[in-house]
Each structure stands twice: as C-alpha cells, then as structure tokens.
Amino acid sequence: MDSVQSQYMRINHILMCLIGQWPYQESWEKFLIQFVFVPAVFAQAVVQGGGMITAWFADDIDAFMEGLSPFVISLMCVCKHINYTYNHEQMKKLALTMADDWNIYSKLSHEYHILCRNYAMGRKVTLAYAGKNYIEISLYGSMAPFLAVPVIINTAGYMGLYNISEGRPLMFRTEYFIDSEKYYYPLLVHSYIGTLGFVTIVVAIDTMLVFHVQHECGMCEILG
C-alpha cells in the first residue's frame, strides 16, 4: 500500500488490527487476536443473554426489557464480525484492488487529486466516528458517560456518599453463574472489555466500508 494511501487509512489500520481483520496483518497476530479478543468479547453477549433468560424465568419483565436492547446490539456486533471474517478473502481482494488503483492513478496529477479528496473525506468520517477531535459526536464519546456510571457509583459508595447495599452495579444485567459480589471487579473489567470490543468492531468495520465507498466514488469520477 502506498505511503500516502496508508496515511489516510492509518486509523482504520489500527482499528482493524485490533479486531484481527486488517488485510495485511501478520497471520500470528490474527491468530492471537482471534484466540484472545474474540472469545473475551463474544462472551459478553453470552452472559447478557443469560441475564435475560434468568430475568424471564424469574418473571422480572422490567429486567428482561432492560437487557434486551444491549443484547440485541451485542448480537449485531457479533454478526458483523462473523460476516467480515467469513468474507475476509473478498475483503482482502478489495483492499488489494484499492492499492492497485491508487498506484496506477497516483501517477496522474488530476486523478491523484480526486483520490486524495475522496480519501480525505473517508478519513474525516473515520475521525468523527471514532472520536478523535470529534468526541462529542463519536461512538466512543457517546459511550463515555455510560462507561463511567459503575466507576462513579463505586467511588461514591467507597466514600460513603452512596448506599450500595443492594449490590454493586455491573454495566449490564448479566448472568455469569458465579458469585458476582465475590468476583465483582473481574466481572466489571470483563464488561468493560466486552463493551469497548463491540464498539471497536462497529467503528472498525463501518469506517472501512466508508473507505470502500469513497474509493469507488473516486474511481467513478476518474472513469466517468
């Protein structure tokens, strides 16, 4: 991949590497991420589903409905990652085609300008989506208050400003089938890892698709 093209896609490179889907990533890195990242993150969806099932059999409809939306979102992220993994070879061919097109048309000043303009738009969307310099409208930025709630409540409880006698909160209603009070902090850390992992899957894949579209827009403008 050309250095200028890779510079435009630097953030996408980082995000896709984090989920093990970058086309040029080393095989051992992909294996390690698939072995560690995927089970840890996907387990979040499993325990959320367990929490819903537990609430259903306990006739706690409020708890069931509370857990429904996060579970559906988690399931969507799982499907998105599985779909991209299943079509990995096609996505790799598409990335190679993008690199070949860039190498061909970057030698022509007008065509090069068109590609740069479209890639700059793709980078701008990625920045806005991921959060750098646009945190108020980003997906990561929108998750910050939600992620902070357990920390704030636990801190307030530790300082005696809040009564947490009914149990310390996790991020979601889940069912780990173990003592959640005894293993509270490991479970809380896992919920953070799972949540950030799901957000990363969405941001990485969606912004990569934006670059696919922007590249095609540039090619249509060049060839049209």
Automatic annotation (TrEMBL):
Keywords: Membrane, Receptor, Transmembrane, Transmembrane helix. The chain crosses the membrane at residues 31-58, 137-162, 183-205. This is Odorant receptor. The lineage of its organism: Eukaryota, Metazoa, Ecdysozoa, Arthropoda, Hexapoda.
